[in-house]
Amino acid sequence: MTLFESLAAAIEGRVTTKADATATDRDWSQITRPWNLQISQEDAVAVVDVDSIADVQQTVKFAAAHDLSVSTQRTGHGATGNAAGTILLRTNNLNTLEIDATSRRAHVGAGVLWGRVQTAAAEYGLSGTPGSSPGIGVVGYTVGGGLSWFSRKFGLAGVSARSFAVVTADGERLYVDNETEPDLYWALRGGGGDVAIVTSVELQLHPVPYLFGGRMMWPADRAHDVMCAYQAVTADAPAELTLWLDLLHFPGSPTPLVALDCTFLGAEKLARQLLSPFDSIGGTLSDSRATMSTAELASITGDPLDPSPGISHTVPVRVFDEGVMAALLREPIFPLLSVQIRQLGGAVSGANDLPNGPLASQHLVYLFGSPTPDRSADRIRERISELSEQLAPAIGHGKPLTFLAPGETMSAALPDQSVRKLATLKHRWDPDRILRSSCPTPAVDELVGAEHTVR
Fold first, then answer.
1. Which range of residues forms the domain containing residue 168?
2. What pTM, to 2 d.p., does this model score?
3. Are both 139 and 285 inside the same structural domain?
């Protein structure tokens, strides 16, 4: 019996190695690929599709016994290529979902995607705190911070996480909340999945009796006007209102565009009053704004559901002012597909006990390109670097871990004290570093001087 045959015999799920793929004429790159096709994970040693929590336990114990690492992945939207020598543990089949309308709680397995949660919760007039795509895994999004359409009102996704079921690096099952292992609970509410494997999460849902949202679109020559309106409206917007401004240049289109995406947790009449500066711009190409169900959030931006390549970088911006506008409008965004400015503030900037802490910056600028024959990966990276440099005078610090790009470290997203605490917890819960996330927690000796003690 070969090494991985012994694991296959011990679990209910499926174990696949490169040798298995070769023997059955399957493409190893396809088997290991994440959602982001720009990232290769061919250097993983095996893929394990688990069917149960017991499978997760057996896989972790196997990895520990054979000096291997385990990297948990549902979709791979946030994959960074950190899979060398690991067992890719796929949680797709841990797909239980229960909505308790009385307590307004959702019990969500690690294989569940946000679209399913939103559809189920909407039947009761409730909502989670999802981002723009229904195809994102709930658990990975939550442990990575999770910036939602509704974060200005309800906080980052970790705020809504009430408890976690986990498997630790020694293969034991554990229930974690604010009273049971509170430090581990803190780490999982935005500190990444590097300290324990989350098999399910209990989320607090929120009543949303009214929701207004949609997208307005103009030709790119109206971009400065749209930016000025964005600046004015976001300056004193209530926490129920969230705006995302998009500079867009779709593949195959000779004409760049500018868009304004919005949600408002309230009635349409007040939403339209708050958004009236955009109505006076003129030249609107389309306007999909309307009262909608929380299950329809994905229709606003129309994020792709099929795997595709992407290269991105996100910079926090302290204030959206004329200098930022000038930097973004100095030249066309090509070869990027989009430059998106996401409004922060509200509950995101308020006091909280998450690893991110309060985010002082008022906006995130998300630079994104998707390589095509006329948009090379190298040129996309160059353009991202150029724009980042032009934005440098306005750049602040802090963002959810889900916005980290390959090559960035945890310190680019979290405060120093949170990184130090996470390193200490990693040392305590996984001293042999068996578990590995897309953004690894640094080792204690890389951060902590002799005056600090690891407990």
1. 97-207
2. 0.94
3. no
Last residue of one domain, picked from the residues 74, 90, 106 = 90
Cα–Cα distances in Å, from 376 out to 37, 59, 195, 207, 381?
Answer: 14, 39, 36, 45, 9
Is the predicted pLDDT of residue 445 greater than 90, yes or no?
no
Query: Confidence band (pLDDT; 50, 70, 90) for 450?
Result: very low
Are both 144 and 265 inside the same structural domain? no
pLDDT of residue 23: 83
Is residue 447 in some structural domain?
no
Domain for residue 440, yes or no?
Answer: no
**356 and 216, same domain (yes or no):** yes
In a domain, 450, yes or no: no
- One domain, residues 232 and 333: yes
Instruction: Please give the tally of structural domains in the chain.
Output: 3
CATH number, domain of 73, equals 3.30.43.10
Q: Do 102 and 84 sit in the same domain of this protein?
A: no
Say whether both 69 and 166 belong to one domain: no
Residue range 388-410, pLDDT digits in tens: 999 999 999 999 999 999 999 99
Q: Judge whether 418 lies within some domain.
A: no
State the average pLDDT for the chain.
94
Digit-coded pLDDT (tens) for 91-139: 999 999 999 999 999 999 999 999 999 999 999 999 999 999 999 999 9
